[in-house]
Specification:
mainly alpha; 78% helix
Length: 99
């Protein structure tokens, strides 16, 4: 078979990337890229791969957030009251020092 036909098959059917195809058919990445750009359906496949990559990245980030981030404990009413009181004291102290 012709390397061009092989490259087209590998890209559209086997879903290999350009570097992998270039290594298998014995051509440069640029030659394979130029060939694929001239084929119908290349832009759609490229966009599909980009969308798939974006979804995979979003899923990874979501999973990382779920497993790696420290979850804050819910603040109780007593903690809120203490925080408000401390804030009022701090405001008074800072306001008093200005004058």
């Amino acid at each position: 078979m012709d390397w061009k036909t092989d490259a087209e098959y590998m890209y559209f059917t086997e879903k290999l990337n350009i570097s992998e195809i270039a290594g298998k058919v014995g051509r440069s990445r640029k030659a394979v890229s130029n060939l694929l750009k001239a084929l119908p359906g290349y832009q759609q496949e490229k966009q599909r791969r980009a969308d798939e990559s974006l979804r995979a990245r979003q899923d990874y980030k979501r999973e990382w957030d779920r497993t790696s981030r420290v979850r804050k404990q819910p603040v109780g009413l007593l903690s809120i009251a203490l925080l408000k009181r401390q804030h009022e004291i701090d405001v008074n102290v800072l306001s008093h020092e200005r004058f």
